Amino acid sequence: MREKGLRKDPGCSWIKFKNKLYIFSADDFSSPYYDQIYAELEKLNEKMIQMGYVPDASSVLHDVEELEKIKMLGHHSERLAIAFGLIFIPRHCPIRIVKNLRVCRDCHNATKYISKITQREILVRDAVRFHLFKDGACSCGDFW
User: Fold this and answer.
1) Planar angle of CA 31, 108, 49, nearest 5 degrees
2) pTM of the entire structure?
3) Which residue numbers delimit the DYW domain (predicted)?
4) What does the alpha-carbon distance between residue 45 and residue 18 come to, in Å, rounded to a whole number?
5) CB under 8 Å to 56, separation ≥6 — which residues?
6) Backbone phi, psi, residue 123, to 5°
7) 142: which DSSP letter?
8) pLDDT higher for 14 or 67?
């Protein structure tokens, strides 16, 4: 891509809370709430693994070791935004996330687990469609 002068837009996700937009990118530590967000992700990851979640690193195209790829997956922008929503959005409200790119296969799968664990509705609008995650399933029927 570099040789052809092509660039890929960096992935980011955003969520609105109290009329303020919170924007996240992968491995983002810029939020004043990053310690709470990453702690929430750690708790969710442990519960997901207990329920049978297996990370799918096939969508990580970086030339790094498998364990590093799995770590990178856990810090994708939509997961950071979801964790923020779980912390701050009231339980009776759905969590609404917008992502500028398509959700990767692993994050799609992980969000199904998160919706089941937390019993929360999570709506993700990616570059292709809306995904409503509820009770461990997605409205797209896993076709995206």
Assistant:
1) 85
2) 0.89
3) 52-144
4) 27
5) 73, 105, 106, 109
6) -105, 120
7) T
8) 14
